[in-house]
Design a protein that fits this description.
Elements lengths: L1 H25 L10 H10 L3 E8 L9 E6 L14 E7 L19 H18 L2 H13 L10
Parallel strand pairs: 1-3
Antiparallel strand pairs: 2-3
Length: 155
């Protein structure tokens, strides 16, 4: 009889833990890594989350123009002992673009998902800018000044 009770209670514990652990998967946070902070705030607010900046690296651009490199949920409680379930911590990189010989930022050798997301966003923004009047003006000036560069992607 003891064996039947222990098997039944073990099965109940297993079922309860599966319910607990599977609940977190269904409520995943929106993926905002690689987005500008201004855009990420809108996405997170739309998901009823309050973004709070946890860290900022660099100071080359205003906060809204920084790239989101990671997010996490706080594991601390507020002063009343309650969980801040609607808060999401955001880590930012405030460099305007990936690293180059003259600008700090993510290294081209950094293949981490956050660095790749930032490079992808920067590349999309650059392509969009090159289609503007200002971008086309830059393209023509660059080709005149540096014919040895050949065709510039996006120009």
């Amino acid at each position: 009889m003891k064996m039947i009770i222990s098997i039944a209670s073990g099965a109940a514990v297993a079922c309860a833990s599966m319910v607990l652990f599977s609940a977190g998967v269904a409520a995943a946070d929106p993926d905002v890594v690689g987005k500008r902070y201004a855009d990420a705030k809108g996405v997170l607010s739309g998901a009823s989350l309050t973004p709070v900046v946890a860290t900022m690296v660099g100071d080359q651009v205003p906060q809204d123009q920084c790239f989101v490199v990671s997010t996490s949920r706080p594991t601390f409680l507020d002063q009343g002992g309650a969980s801040k379930g609607d808060v999401i911590l955001v880590n930012l990189s405030c460099y305007p673009k990936p690293a180059s010989g003259t600008n700090p930022g993510f290294s081209a050798a950094n293949n981490a998902p956050d660095a790749q997301a930032v490079r992808d966003t920067h590349e999309q923004e650059s392509k969009k800018w090159m289609q503007t009047a200002e971008g086309q003006k830059w393209c023509h000036a660059a080709l005149e000044k540096h014919p040895d560069w050949g065709a510039i992607p996006g120009c």
